[in-house]
């Protein structure tokens, strides 16, 4: 049964890395950020590493469960404290923050910029099932912090960040700009978004640059070097197993996509999977947009909708929910 | 190849639909016809009516994703859906726009037409919503016998042709893009 139990050693490790980051804000360097990502990865992988060992289980869909969280995700600090207090038989969820803030420091291009303000918040939720198999969620926050300054390759001008040889690009940019709304985030009408040379630029209504992010197909495309300032979440082993990803690469999650990266050159070699990054926890309602039964063919006999349970697939998991309350009652791994 | 597949799958689809009718209402979306052994990417390449989509897919380097484990359901715009106003999303300079457009046409899991119809009938409003990989919502509704799908910004398309059950998901042809560019 998928009864959720709180903190294990893996989760403690997962908590340890962000704590260290929080304890030392303001010293962010490009290299440090990468290191932080790696530390977080070790912690995160420590849990899912158990999952790989279940690939040969008798029931490829995993066991069904009815574990339910007592409460929705909480403040990170409270979550840690309460998690320590819980006994092994109590279910719970913990929101793990990974907040990196660098108000000063060297930028990736070596320049020192006092106005640099890198803020990242990557939240994820970790559940530990009673049989030791963790469920790790990636987050995809619309209001995720942007990186301050001009992205690599663009020079700061009076009217924002512009590429060299801008005149010849104006015509093409005009056509491309008609899709700028596709990157609009968070429903904030006081911001406008432009795509330029691989990066999403966020501007205020007066046209001043507020921040930037690399985007899929732009700076995040095969052959491109991973942007040094761009934080990612290392993919846990479950995703490598589920998606059948080849070894020898790092797999990084960022903004709804899983990227294969050459660990030596830091070059993106593959876009391995698309993920919604919006996965509900046990006890939470299914989010909007899962009205339609979508379980993979091979699991439909096992997980068919019925009067007592409904099933929806997302990002490598099947979610069991109560048809009346729409609350998630179990998260099921689909390792084959 | 595509035509052959359709003829092969047609009897199975009829059987599947008949089986659906015999089941209780909550479980009507369970049975599906046997999927092909071709991936979504291979299915799109096989069908000449998706030439532009294939070019956009290659340009955005998302072919591996749709050839991988998935499963995904792709609402696949036919060549005619890429009107002049859409611009050339297969152009090298439009990779990111093409990737963003594609994400708005892909949803997680395997959605058959029977699943979509069942969800619309189950919901009191006669509509059903599905979240895309672009974090937008697609809304499904019926107009007569046609299934209409509407994107976040009001772009509307009709499910057209036949669905193809690929090895790693479903290809659902649509007759228009589910996003539309802002006026230039």
Biggest protein-protein interface? A-B, 57 and 61 residues
Count of the separate structural domains of chain B: 1
Helix content of chain A: 10-25%
How much is the average pLDDT of chain A?
Answer: 64
What is the first-to-last residue Cα distance of chain B?
40 Å
Mind telling me the CATH class of chain B?
Answer: Mainly Beta
Describe it.
The complex is a heterodimer of chains A (336) and B (184). Chain A has 336 residues and is α+β, with helices and mostly antiparallel strands. Chain A has helices spanning 9-23, 30-46, 49-52, 76-85, 166-177, 237-243, and strands at residues 4-5, 94-96, 99-102, 118-121, 124-129, 134-136, 155-157, 160-162, 192-196, 199-203, 209-214, 233-234, 250-254, 257-261, 268-274, 310-314, 317-321, 328-333. Chain A is built from 6 helices and 18 strands. In chain A, a hairpin with a 2-residue loop joins strand 7 (155-157) and strand 8 (160-162). In chain A, helix 1 packs antiparallel against helix 2. Chain A is globular and about 60 Å long. Residues 1-125 of chain A have low confidence and may be disordered. Chain B has 184 residues and is α+β, with helices and mostly antiparallel strands. Chain B contains 6 helices and 8 strands, in the order H-H-H-H-E-H-E-H-E-E-E-E-E-E. In chain B, the strands form 2 sheets. Chain B has a 4-stranded mixed beta sheet with strand order 2-1-8-7, covered by helices on one side. Chain B starts with a helix and ends in a 10-residue tail after the last strand. The chains are: A alpha+beta (336), B alpha+beta (184). Chains A and B meet through helix 5, strand 15 and strand 16 of A and helix 5, strand 2, helix 6 and strand 3 of B.
